[in-house]
Model the fold of this input.
Amino acid sequence: MVTKADTFRALHRGRLPDDPLVLPGPWDAASARALADAGFPALAVPSAGVAAALGHADGETPPEEMFAAVARIARAVDVPVSADVEDGYGLPPKELVERLLEAGAVGCNLEDSHRNSGRNSGRISGRDSDGGVLKDAHAHADWLAEVRSAAADQLFVNARIDTFLRGESDPARAIERAALYVAAGADCVYPIGAPVAVLPLLRSGTRAPVNVLARIDEGPSPAELGELGATRVTFGPGLQRRATAAAAEIAARMR
Done:
């Protein structure tokens, strides 16, 4: 029997350079249905978008609320759903996997840095920093290996690499971390905030699919990012922020 996790994993394979997997980010059940109805084959829930929808600053959503939001989204659609669960909320790998599977997720993003206390930056666009620090790469790889062991093939693990976000501009540092995380069982790596110019180098130096963050209506298109090395393209909380701005504009005309 082919599971949603199998389907999601297969979506990352055999992609042409100009045809990366595009995963928009729903923040609630209604937005998830709209995106699924638009024909996207899978969705990637952004933690920042969910945080904003629930009235929290980015990084301050209680785990119970985040998993509940992911569950509502996963129940609302038939397509596979991956979820950004930040740094795992300090949960043991086995419990983290259990809660993701209970919520109906087939994939997850996991960060490799610690945010500052308070976690109140409210902004994750790929180039905004909250002043956090990178985790020890070897220790994080060991933790990812525990997540993979607990999940087996039931979760697609997207290992976020925060070197560029934390001010480390040398692509070699991201490639080193990618190698450790892939060896630990990560299915995909996500060098968030990587400059477009270094994407070909990251792609050539990484033995796994590469997730690239795009901006809506700004910068290279998904197809252009694919040609530069992106296997899949996500937008973080971009859609949620655009929807909120549109609501504000409409409200202003209603007065």
